[in-house]
Amino acid sequence: MPKIQIYDTTLRDGTQGEGVSLSCDDKLRIARKLDELGVDFIEGGWPGSNPKDAEFFERAKQQTWKHATITAFGSTCRTDVAAKDDTNVQALLASGTEVCTIFGKSWMLQVTDVLRTTAEENLRIIEETIQHLVTQGRRVIYDAEHFFDGYRADADYALQTLRAAIRGGAETLVLCDTNGGSLPWQVDSIIRDVIQKTNHPVGVHTHDDAGCGVANALAAVRAGARHVQGTINGIGERCGNANLCAILPALELKQVMDSGDTLHSLPQGSLEHLTATARFVTEVANLTPNRQMAYVGRSAFAHKGGVHVAAMRRNADAYQHIDPQLVGNEMRVVVSELSGRGNVLSKAEELEIDASPDVARQVVEDIKSLEAMGYSFEAAEASIAMMVRRRNPDYQAPFRVLDYKVTVSGKEDGSTLAEAVVKVAVGGAQLHTAAEGDGPVEALDRALRKAIRPEFPHVREIHLTDYKVRILNSAAGTGAVTRVLIDSASGPHSASSPHKWSTVGASDNIITASCTALIDSLEYGLFITAESNGNRIEGTGQAVHEMNSAFPEHSPKTQ
């Protein structure tokens, strides 16, 4: 099985992306995660460019790496300077890495207009820099910058730069599509030419400016490249680098080669950690996750259309190109106005809630009607769970809100005070409670909790963690429909709790919308409490007894 070297440049080229900034601690954490994934090379940074990268290499020396080789990145020596006297080359040596990666110019435009030197001097600095590093005991990977542009402009000179690198002792020639404008068939043709004319190991480094970064990398492998560079999640300058999260599954799971051979790029069993790695990098880098990212995105295996879900209930391969578990992801069913009965049945199974086909049909009708009013259930699975439960004939609600009133008063100094009064039916009794808050939603939340806490003391472990408002038809002014999404969690440390869920409400009155979402959140939260206590809600009141006696065999999973 052919081996493809995987060279990760997230910590160097990836940090050149707009909005990406990593501390030295961040870089070390990500490097350890990449090492666990099993990549061959981790490019830690450019030690000659900034103190943070120099610190990274110093600290990396103190760690044991299971799979990866840490590499330092830099440029050829400056023109008219000997390699041994160049400060950037000296910094590469001082980094202490076994492997150094340097880049040089392949395109005459870069030689004359950027370096402002001669063709001969450019060849000299490539060969001499690599040779000096090799004589100092370093392995050298040579990145031929702008190679595809240079080859199309002057193939003979582009090849001369590669031969200079070979004479210097480079172990791999990495052909770079630095501007990201090449197309797959161009990459394929040039890679084949270079391999034939140099008879030397070749790699590829592509960017995504034409939307072809991954396709170009795979085309290069198909043409004979055995070394691929890229970044996790495709982060990088401009439109980003080739995305290793798409390249790795393609190499491992797809027949890239005409021979039908699959290609070995990671240690056996490592691919199933890919999604976790992608999300870890996103979190550490404080980036917004791309839900639609191939293989590892949260929506990569999410199914919304009723026809699709109905087909997949018969055969999971009907609308999925791979088993999501192969890359550590999961299939999800999204419920919306486009859903059919199968969506609801699948969601109920996912949440471990009993639902008959008739209940599923009724819930689908409810969803279609509510979404026409402004609701959206895609991000509010707890509200779906409560709709299913309430449609079951034996369902006992722990409490019912009979009436509520919220008032807000403002003072001359700009401060406000909100008060909520609620009438709640709990266990055969009607309770009137009131509470104050900084705003109307907080006051309403406190009043509801105050009413049900005597019967359900564990409600104190349910916490609102986020509150989002969206105006749906702003042209209607103050009469616009408002959608409220509430995120909640349970447990003494709810911010880090695995028990998290979301609920939704919609109305032309923001208080009504908020109350609907709050009721769903608290009611669902009581089932989370029950799940944590062996499907029993603690308490001695009539409402607790009725709820426990009617408890279904299964309670919902946390979300």
Question: Which tags fit this structure?
Answer:
16 strands, three-stranded antiparallel sheet, TIM Barrel, 559 residues, alpha/beta, Double Stranded RNA Binding Domain, eight-stranded parallel barrel
What would you call the structural class? alpha/beta
pLDDT < 50 stretches: 550-559
CATH H-level name of the largest domain... which superfamily?
A: Aldolase class I
Q: Which strand order spans the largest sheet, edge to edge or round the barrel?
A: 1-2-3-4-5-6-7-8
% residues in beta strands: 15-25%
Tell me the Rg in angstroms: 30 Å
Principal-axes geometry comes out as elongated
Average per-residue pLDDT, rounded, comes to 87
Which CATH-level-2 architecture of the largest domain?
Alpha-Beta Barrel
Helix content: 25-40%
H/I helix tally: 18
What does this structure look like?
- This protein has three domains: 5-284, Alpha-Beta Barrel (TIM Barrel); 302-373, no CATH class; 400-549, 2-Layer Sandwich (Double Stranded RNA Binding Domain).
- It is elongated and about 90 Å long.
- It is of the alpha/beta class.
- The protein is 39% helix and 19% strand.
- The longest helix is centred in the last third of the chain and has 23 residues, at 510-532.
- The strands form four sheets. An eight-stranded parallel β-barrel has the order 1-2-3-4-5-6-7-8, surrounded by nine helices.
Topology of this protein?
Layout: E1 5-8, H1 24-37, E2 41-45, H2 51-60, E3 69-75, H3 87-94, E4 99-105, H4 108-115, H5 119-135, E5 139-145, H6 147-153, H7 155-168, E6 172-177, H8 184-198, E7 202-206, H9 213-223, E8 227-230, H10 244-253, H11 274-284, E9 302-303, H12 306-314, E10 332-333, H13 341-350, H14 357-373, H15 381-391, E11 400-410, E12 416-426, E13 429-437, H16 440-452, E14 462-471, E15 482-490, E16 500-507, H17 510-532, H18 542-549
Parallel strand pairs: 1-2, 1-8, 2-3, 3-4, 4-5, 5-6, 6-7, 7-8, 9-10
Antiparallel strand pairs: 11-12, 12-13, 14-15, 15-16
